[in-house]
Specification:
It holds the Pfam family TetR_N. The chain is built from 8 helices and no strands. With 190 residues, the chain is an all-alpha fold. The mean pLDDT is 91.
Length: 190
């Protein structure tokens, strides 16, 4: 890759990352492309140049979030006992979210308080989880009589649930005046 291509990639990544942070904080509808450009330290025209429109930028942000999820799950080998593979994948997702707080904040916003157009990210995540679940089944892991789509939703909710709900529990705990630290949210579906 030439230095011009490298600079262009750096600029588009900087714009996308600035958009992710602003979308997580304010939501897509409340964030202007001008604000994204200012946050990224670029001229406003560059946002349109790289992403075409706000929708194009939002889609790039969504694809980046799904890519983080995909890479985290893909980092875990599918060899070994089922419980170790499942625990390893859950740990990889947790580590990814710890390293990418804007991604989890954006997910929390679109899942818990969705706005118009926010369903696309959830659909992309679900589609990725369906592929991941089928891959596990193809490797003899996670075989179930449950349809793959239902199993994928269960896994996705288990992996995201703590990240989506823990801040709410923390706020309630603080409002209650409790002196001990809040308990950890663990999601179990029955």
């Amino acid at each position: 890759m030439g230095s011009r291509e490298g600079a262009a990639g750096d600029t588009s990544t900087r714009i996308r990352d600035a958009a992710l942070a602003l979308f997580a904080e304010r939501g897509v509808a409340a964030t202007s492309l001008r604000e994204v450009a200012r946050s990224a330290g670029v001229a406003p025209g560059l946002v349109g140049h790289y992403f075409g429109s706000k929708d194009g930028l939002q889609e790039a942000v969504e694809d980046a979030v799904v890519g983080l999820f995909h890479d985290a799950l893909g980092s875990v080998t599918l060899d070994g006992p089922v419980d170790e593979v499942v625990a390893g994948r859950d740990a990889a997702v947790n580590a990814m979210f710890r390293a990418n707080p804007h991604a989890v904040d954006y997910l929390r916003r679109v899942v818990v308080t969705p706005g118009a157009g926010d369903g696309r990210l959830v659909r992309k995540l679900l589609d990725e989880q369906i592929v991941q679940t089928q891959t596990l089944r193809d490797h003899g892991i996670g075989a179930s009589r449950t349809p793959v789509t239902e199993q994928a939703v269960r896994v996705l909710v288990r992996q995201l649930g703590t990240w989506l709900l823990q801040p709410a529990l923390g706020r309630l705990w603080a409002l209650s005046g409790a002196e001990s630290p809040p308990p950890e949210v663990r999601v179990t579906l029955r």
